[in-house]
Design brief:
The protein is of the alpha/beta class. It has two domains: 1-55 and 213-459, Hexokinase, domain 1; 67-198, ATPase, nucleotide binding domain (Nucleotidyltransferase, domain 5). The protein is built from 17 helices and 13 strands. The longest helix is centred in the last third of the chain and has 32 residues, at 375-406. The chain is globular and about 75 Å long. The N and C termini lie far apart (64 Å). 48% of the residues are buried. Bound molecules: beta-D-glucopyranose. Beta-D-glucopyranose (BGC) binds next to helix 5 and strand 10. Beta-D-glucopyranose is lined by residues 75-76, 147-149, 164-165, 199-201, 224, 226, 228-230, 264, 266, 297. Residues 11-210 form the Hexokinase N-terminal domain. GO terms for molecular function: ATP binding; D-glucose binding; fructokinase activity; glucokinase activity.
Length: 473
């Protein structure tokens, strides 16, 4: 190690320790999650509690569903329009068009955003289904995946509770997002009926059930670890105490026994009773538009990992430990000074760099942040990257273990359980799923539970699931 780095590495070691998540924290997290989930289901929590939103999705597909449906999917980064052909044999075909959401639309007005979304649906229908629209006497059914917390009032209506993941369009909060999309589609004379509203996690749960997870047990959870994070599962009607008794009665008469719950686990432990909180987490929260909310998400999901690391680097620089060639904050490369400019994709490359003197990391930091580094600095940055990602993956085990416990999913001999997951972090971040499993083994489920748990990627799940919802309407 070159001279002058002793203090840096001492500090890095301290931070690595601080970011370590112990078995004790994981188990306390699982207990707290179960407590908050039960409160959420009974309607006994305030706006900072765990939302546990009833979705009005009351049946889980078995793979025999058939039809051609449209799906529109507003995630954290992209908007996708697809047509999904469900073949009725657990398989589907998908045609899709994906467009990045323009940054200025993320903080403009709801009219601007929804008019843009409708125009993308119009263009898609024109390109792929023009002939059918001429001959059809009815409108195409569309399932709308809207990946933000929505207070759902029926399968095809729900008002936005608050924005997450960097969106900030105040006039949209409290409005019915289905009506917003439908109005703009109608204005643009698009022959499409928005017939279902689904969170991306609900879509993932349904899609994974449709494609036949049976080989590895029943699918219990659909979850996303991408720009944001969240999970959905199927709950017994009688446990959802906050549902209107009249609704429960009428559902029971139809033979319904369960309803899918969108937990919005991004908002787990907003009160920070168990979640580890470094000074960097506090700064990151202060930079967001939903301060004090989604505190779990802000430690776990892709949007935040790079920003946490960036805050650490800035701090170590200000203490004269790192990037010493820059004498002041203002002289640091512009991109390193820009919030949110360090993406989790860069972290994923640093994470697995095993080249001599971390040359691959050098290239990455040069290309993405215009940041020259010494080999020692890169080693420090790699250690910190691994600490941030490991904390994220370990914390990710909490809601999974808690929901499997809450639903008594491991009851019975040899029961295997499937969890359908989607999102850039769980799909592409090296080692994320393995670290998450290691952490599950440290929870109350132990290594026995971990061995019987299968976490599988549900590719395109959110769109396919929205189409399945539209079909059931
Ligand atoms: C949203 C959820 C969504 C998750 C994953 C969160 O920020 O609140 O509704 O499911 O991101 O996309």
């Amino acid at each position: 190690m070159g001279s002058g780095y002793t203090e840096l590495f001492e500090e890095v070691d301290k931070l690595v320790d601080e970011f370590d998540v112990t078995a004790e924290t994981l188990q306390a997290g699982v207990d707290l999650f179960i407590e908050l989930a039960q409160k959420g289901l009974s309607g006994d929590s305030d706006e900072h509690g765990l939302p546990m939103i009833p979705t009005y999705v009351t049946s889980i597909p078995d793979g025999s569903e058939k039809g051609v449906l449209l799906a529109a999917d507003l995630g954290g980064t992209n908007f996708r329009v697809c047509s999904v052909t469900l073949n009725g044999d657990h398989t589907f075909n998908l045609i899709q068009q994906k467009s990045p959401i323009p940054i200025d639309l993320m903080s403009g007005t709801s009219d601007e955003l929804f008019s843009y979304l409708a125009s993308k649906v119009v263009a898609f229908v024109k390109e792929h289904h023009e002939e059918e629209t001429k001959s059809l006497d009815h409108k195409f059914k569309l399932g709308f995946t809207f990946s933000f917390p929505v207070d759902q009032t029926s399968l095809n209506s729900g008002s936005l509770m608050r924005w997450t993941k960097g969106f900030d369009i105040p006039d949209c909060v409290g409005k019915d997002v289905v009506a917003l999309l439908q109005n703009h589609l109608d204005e643009q004379k698009c022959p499409v009926q928005v017939s279902a509203l689904a969170n991306d996690t609900v879509g993932t749960l349904l899609a994974r059930s449709y494609t036949g997870s049976n080989k590895e047990g029943t699918t219990v959870i659909g979850c996303i670890f991408g720009t944001g994070t969240n999970g959905a599962y199927n709950e017994k009607l009688e446990n959802i105490k906050k549902l209107d008794p009249a609704v429960v009665e009428s559902l029971k008469k139809k033979g319904v026994t369960h309803m899918v719950i969108n937990t919005e686990w991004g908002s787990f432990d907003n009160a920070l009773k168990v979640l580890p909180t470094s000074k960097y987490d506090t700064i990151v929260d202060s930079l967001t538009s939903n301060k004090g909310f989604h505190m779990f998400e802000k430690r776990v999901s892709g949007m935040f990992l790079g920003e946490i690391l960036r805050q650490i680097l800035i701090d170590l620089h200000s203490r004269g430990l790192l990037l010493k060639q820059y004498s002041t904050y203002d002289s640091l490369p512009h991109r390193l000074r820009t919030p949110w400019d360090l993406s989790s994709e860069v972290l994923s490359l640093i994470e697995i760099d095993d080249s001599t003197k971390l040359k691959a990391t050098e290239l990455q930091l040069n290309q993405t942040l215009r940041l020259p580094t010494t080999p020692e600095e890169r080693l420090a940055i790699q250690k910190l990257t691994r600490a941030v990602s490991r904390r994220s993956a370990y914390l990710a085990a909490i809601p999974i273990a808690a929901l499997l416990t809450l639903t008594e999913s491991f009851k019975g001999h040899h029961v295997e359980v499937d969890v359908g997951a989607d999102g850039s972090v769980v799909e592409f971040y090296p080692g994320f799923r393995t670290m998450m499993r290691d952490a599950v083994a440290l929870t109350q489920l132990g290594s026995k539970g971990e061995r019987r748990l299968h976490i599988n990627i549900a590719k395109d799940g959110s769109s396919v699931g929205a189409a399945l919802c539209a079909l059931s309407e």
